[in-house]
Amino acid sequence: MANPRRGEVEAVIDGRPRTLCLTLGALAELEAAFGVDDLAALAARFGSGRLSARDIMRILAAGLRGAGEAVGDEDAGRLRVEGGLLGAADLAGRLLVATFGRAEDPARGPFDPSPSPGTPP
């Protein structure tokens, strides 16, 4: 069962429940894959609201690896996510929100890696 406090998301993939989590290692992989230097740039990249099929595949693969599954990016492209393409896009979005949170200021975009006001550092 997924623990949302740890940034985990649960989904039905290939007919069985799976947990996904973007750990620091998974985020580092995504930084390299998207050619960005830091988490703020990664959050800005995802916050654009425009994700390609390859983006979704990489995010889901990194989330599965972060939760301990041995799956490559190309392998993730062959997984059947409940709900098809829309389900996969929704899952990637839920995983990003679980990891980065949702910005309270719409001008900052949907994802913001900085702590919310009042959150201890």
Commentary on this structure:
With 121 residues, the protein is mainly α. The protein has a two-stranded antiparallel sheet with strand order 1-2. A hairpin with a 2-residue loop joins β1 and β2. α1 packs across α2 and α3 crosses α5. The protein starts with 7 loop residues before the first strand and ends in a 21-residue tail after the last helix. The C terminus is likely disordered.
In short:
With 121 residues, this protein is mainly α. The protein has helices spanning 24-34, 39-47, 53-66, 73-76, 84-100, and strands at 8-13, 16-21. It is 45% helix and 10% strand.
What descriptors fit this protein?
single chain, 121 residues, mainly alpha, two-stranded antiparallel ribbon, 5 helices, 45% helix, globular
Mean pLDDT: 83
Strand content: 5-15%
Count of helical regions: 5
Structural class: mainly alpha
Our measurement of the CA-to-CA distance between the termini, rounded to an integer number of angstroms, reads: 28 Å
Kindly state the number of beta strands.
Answer: 2
Describe the sheet with the most strands: 2 strands, antiparallel
Query: What pattern of helices and strands is seen along the backbone?
Result: EEHHHHH
Strand order of the largest sheet: 1-2
Task: Please tell me what the overall shape is.
Answer: globular
